[in-house]
From TrEMBL:
Domain Histidine kinase residue range list: 256-471
Occurrences of domain HAMP (ranges): 196-248
Protein name per UniProt: histidine kinase
SUPFAM superfamilies in the cross-refs: ATPase domain of HSP90 chaperone/DNA topoisomerase II/histidine kinase, HAMP domain-like, Homodimeric domain of signal transducing histidine kinase
Catalytic activity: ATP + protein L-histidine = ADP + protein N-phospho-L-histidine
Length: 471
């Protein structure tokens, strides 16, 4: 799990978080740099107003050179900038730092290309390298000076790029360290939540699934969660319950089959062994041979029923649905039971709607259904009892009912009568039933897409009813 889903989740989440925080940090850095330079520009413009005032006074002869230099020095120290005053031709006439006074003495024209923009009362913002004056590149901000709408020169404020980026580097450091710290914290939280919410529950489900695959079908997943993982655990437990029931049914089925097969085989073995050993005298051998033959017939019925059920469950039997006269099928099935009906002196009423009643069914299989239900009625009705078989049309369906006035079925028996090998006699010694007749009936009708049910009738009696599609 950790090498598969967990690692994929962690890689995906970490990648998303890293990209998100890196983009956020980059945006903040870019935004703060722009904000910082705007603030710096605003501060320079604010202080330049005072410098303009002093410069005009100096140019008008109201201020001495020492006084203007002193003003520039004070403001330059405050702004951490080198401030120069240039005239309308670009020559320097005052500086804030004494080491740059040689610019005044040499009468070197500093501003040339920018004079056009300055004369248009535009500020100039640029980064330049004055290699002969400054050791490092500087950011230069040039502000024009006008007096009575006449261009008088400009203020040049130089700030070292390294000095400008000093505060920015500290801010960048805070932003990126915070981003890295946030990424680490998020990774830890994601690791913990992934383990607790997804990975650990899936590991428990996987562990229980492995145990169930090894035969421990009673194992269950204990996860109390209302999210999709909780729903998965609930569905998994539901599946495990079904598997446990299937396993229980399988064991019970094997036990029932073993019991049903063992009983006739034991009888056959005992009778034949008695004949071979001479325990059974010759004059009684025919009687015991007839008993052995009946046991073989019972065993044959059981095997045939098991084969039918297995074929139906596995889908090997393909129903050949055709037009079948259900009334004719019922008549033929009743005739087959004539001997047993006469033996028990039963009264059988057959009430069929219409002379011919056609339905969609597999003729052989629907004959087996009717035969099993009539056999069940004859088996459980009392001697001289009544059996009623009737058909009725209701819309597009035909209802076939088989009633006998025998004892009612208990609630417990009603719940389990469709189970394989279930018999109402708890001794399980009945030799006239395999306990598979009704399950076969239900399986056939289910394959036809039809239904069957049973109900107790008052004052007594039981009635089985199944449906077929009318043609």
């Amino acid at each position: 799990m950790k090498k598969g889903l967990f690692s994929k989740l962690m890689i995906a989440f970490i990648a998303i978080i890293m990209v998100s925080f890196v983009m956020t940090a980059a945006f903040l850095s870019y935004w703060f740099e722009g904000y910082y330079f705007k603030q710096r520009e605003s501060e320079l413009l604010k202080e330049s107003q005072f410098i303009k005032y002093k410069a005009i006074q100096y140019l008008n002869g109201n201020l001495t050179a020492d006084e203007i230099n002193e003003t520039l020095t004070y403001i330059g120290n405050y702004l951490s900038a080198d401030i120069w005053l240039v005239d309308n031709y670009g020559y320097v006439y005052s500086v804030s730092k004494s080491e740059h006074k040689n610019l005044i003495a040499t009468s070197k024209q500093i501003v040339t290309s920018d004079l056009k923009e300055l004369r248009q009362n535009k500020t100039v913002d640029k980064t330049e390298k004055y290699s002969q004056i400054f050791a490092n590149p500087v950011h230069t901000f040039e502000i024009p000076i006008f007096s009575n709408n006449v261009f008088k020169g400009a203020i040049m404020m130089h700030t070292s790029i390294n000095e400008l980026k000093g505060p920015l580097k500290w801010v960048y450091k805070i932003i990126w360290v915070s981003a890295v710290f946030a990424i680490v914290i998020c990774c830890i939280v994601i690791y913990y939540l992934s383990q607790r919410i997804i990975i650990k529950p899936l590991e428990r489900i996987n562990y229980v699934a492995d145990k169930i695959s090894r035969g421990e079908v009673e194992k269950r997943v204990d996860i109390n969660s209302k999210d999709e993982i909780g729903e998965l655990a609930k569905s998994f437990n539901s599946m495990a319950d079904s598997l446990e029931q299937v396993e229980k049914n399988r064991r019970e089925f094997i036990s029932n089959v073993s019991h049903e097969i063992r009983s006739p085989i034991t009888s056959i073995k005992g009778f034949i062994g008695g004949m071979i050993d001479g325990v059974i005298p010759p004059e009684k051998q025919n009687y015991y041979l007839s008993v052995t033959y009946s046991e073989i017939q019972r065993l044959t019925r059981l095997v045939n029923d098991l084969l039918d059920l297995s074929a139906i469950d596995s889908g090997q039997i393909k129903l050949r649905v055709e037009k079948v006269d259900i009334n004719e099928v019922i008549r033929l099935c009743v005739i087959k039971f004539e001997t047993r009906i006469n033996e028990k002196k039963l009264k059988v009423d057959v009430l069929l709607e219409n002379d011919k009643l056609y339905v969609a069914a597999d003729k052989d299989k629907i004959t087996q259904v009717v035969t099993n239900l009539i056999d069940n009625a004859v088996k459980y009705v009392n001697d001289e009892g009544n059996i009623k078989i009737f058909t009725k049309i209701k819309g597009e369906k035909v209802f076939v009912s088989i009633y006998n006035n025998g004892s009612s079925i208990s609630e417990y028996d009603m719940k389990h009568m469709w189970d394989r090998f279930y018999k109402s006699d708890k001794s399980r010694t009945s030799k006239i039933s395999t306990g598979l007749g009704l399950p076969i009936v239900r399986s056939i009708l289910t394959q036809l897409g039809e239904d069957i049910w049973v109900e107790n009738k008052k004052p007594n009696g039981v009635m089985f009813t199944f449906t077929l599609k009318r043609i």
